[in-house]
């Protein structure tokens, strides 16, 4: 793959820089992504027989990546406030979702009862080690705590899947 990259990189860059006024850095990135995509197509069995030269196929991938990048850049260049709004809206929505999940986890942690509540709180919130939890809660050893913690996590996970899908 390295040979493929070095063999055609300069030809692609010369063409892309001249035709699309692309920065050299973007050109390198796009061509590298094209070589990776080519490799993944070969490795994944998507290419059984090429009707074109390797260079043509590789340049077609690179050109598609280049055009997608230009289209993306142009869209947000024409409407920068739309992009800012999209980021802020997505960020706000993500904050709400995270907050709802945190509230659910906290509420369900209370419902789990003992020993789950204590073990998970000590481990995740208070950063206790398994040995420290075993000592504090009077367990035989850290392995017993670890097993109990896994059962508690499994129960908590079932509740999360049920609530959030």
TrEMBL record:
Coiled coil feature spans:
none
Gene3D superfamilies membership: 1.10.1740.10, Winged helix-like DNA-binding domain superfamily/Winged helix DNA-binding domain (1.10.10.10)
Kindly state which keywords UniProt assigns to this record, in alphabetical order: Sigma factor, Transcription, Transcription regulation
UniProt key word Transcription regulation:
yes
InterPro entries (UniProt xref): RNA_pol_sigma-70-like, RNA_pol_sigma-70_dom, RNA_pol_sigma_r2, RNA_pol_sigma_r3/r4-like, WH-like_DNA-bd_sf
Q: Which family does it belong to?
A: Belongs to the sigma-70 factor family. ECF subfamily.
| Full protein name | Sigma-70 family RNA polymerase sigma factor
